[in-house]
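Kindly inspect this one:
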Amino acid sequence: MTPGPAPGGPVGGGPVGGGPVRYRSADEDSGRWRGFPFRAGDIVISTRSKSGTTWVQMVCALLVFQRPDLPAPLAELSPWLDWLGEPLDRVLARLERQRHRRFVKTHTPLDGVPLDRRATYVVVARHPLDMAVSLHHQGDNLDRARIAELTGGAPPGSPPTPRPSAPPRPDLHDWLVAWTRATPSHLDQMDSLPGVLWHLADAWARRHEDNVVLVHYDDLVDDLEGEMRRLAGLFGIAVPEAVWPRLVEAAGFDAMRSAADRLAPDPGGILRDRRAFFRRGRSGAGRELLTPDELAAYESRVVAALPADLVAWLHRP
């Protein structure tokens, strides 16, 4: 069955007047979507972390501009609206100046953003174990002192705050097993397994709405051109046939990694290594790490939480 709301309401308060759920963390706040001035044709890309966000942003950019050389860094063309590291008025002003078709990033589930009939909402799914492995590696690539400075957790230019010595970080296998077993509220930890399952179940329940589109990461891996053509059709974007080969090549993993300086989501310099953001362009890492019993325990938990057709779509061979 589809997971129900966790007791106690979201951190920082629940829906106001029946509006979207408010999701908050140390560096993001979905409340920044309140009153967002939508335009006809806007595209909202809603994903969990490390689920193909930047990849789909790049696909949208290529379809909109129809050329591999984008007019600005991808994070400027497609800002992360919820992120607290940049003042909201500055982000909105940049979006207001854009004359092209806009495509905006969020890590908030669809129940936490305004649903406007003029916009198309693209939700990207990835096998949760692969997403988690990528998330673990991403943690080593983040400059957390810089993030704290940008999001208000530390004064500008201040040295890192000394912290008490902490136990060593578990190795990847042990960390992944713990991730599959943890049971936090999806409202408190959106990148937890309950958070991932909630995000996908909410989108799956809306998949028949004509402005909600689901994309599977593995479809991008297996048939990038086919998925790009499908999205172009759903967006109503006509692409000349002669242009397609250059666009598909530019959306490939190797091409994106080679252009990491302009494509990696690094507002304010929060990544230690932009090329390392594009770590692995294939699937299966999570399943490779777990023992058969650990994998079976994870799958049992997912089967108990999600409708069968969503599990089959998400856990495809």
User: Anything to note?
Assistant: The CA atoms of residues 74 and 263 lie 5 Å apart. The first strand starts at residue 43 and ends at 47. The radius of gyration is 19 Å. Residues 1-17, 162-166 have pLDDT under 50 and may be disordered.
